[in-house]
Amino acid sequence: MSVQSERRELLTRMVAEQPGRLARKMRAAGHQGADAEDLAQETLLRALRSLEGVRGPADEALMCGWVDRIATNLARSAHRAQARHPQDPLESAPEPADPGDADLIACRRSLEPLLSGLPESQRVVFVARVLEERSTAEVAAELGIPDDLVRWRLRTARRRLREQLDRD
Predict the structure, then answer these.
(1) Is the pLDDT of residue 168 over 60?
(2) Fold annotation for 97-168
(3) What is the pTM assigned to this prediction?
(4) With contact defined as beta carbons under 8 Å apart, do 11 and 48 qualify?
(5) Whether the predicted pLDDT of 92 surpasses 80
(6) Cα dihedral: 19, 100, 128, 137 (round 10)
(7) Third-level CATH fold of 1-86
(8) DSSP-H helix ranges across the chain
(9) Which of the residue ranges 57-61, 62-66, 131-135 would you say has the lowest mean pLDDT?
């Protein structure tokens, strides 16, 4: 089996094992609903298109980091595009399925300006742990970092958010 086909198989397996991982990453980066799903799909498409340009062995950790970098760059690019062409967030927000969802959507909207002031590494951890209510172990496994680092980033993010709120 060639290295190229090993990489393709590895990428396929990674997606099959954690199908919502990239969409969660996009939501953690501040993209919501269909936008997060579209960006996750675009990430996979770009990864497949540029798979032959990857150097080195077909290692899962390397491939995961490479795909994450594509996702991060795509999320940043989408944020820049949105900043150049702002849209009323109330127009793009999906209709809530039940009344409790409306409160959650309103809460997320009110947090977005605060969260945008956090470094991406802290924002991703904060959103995953607090808003998505995922465990420290899940977040650590997805990001490929130790549990202690997840807890440190969460503490630092909460401290920075408190400081921002105290200034306002």
Answers:
(1) yes
(2) Arc Repressor Mutant, subunit A (1.10.10)
(3) 0.53
(4) yes
(5) no
(6) -80
(7) Rna Polymerase Sigma Factor; Chain: A (1.10.1740)
(8) 3-17, 21-28, 33-49, 60-84, 89-92, 99-115, 120-126, 136-143, 147-167
(9) 57-61
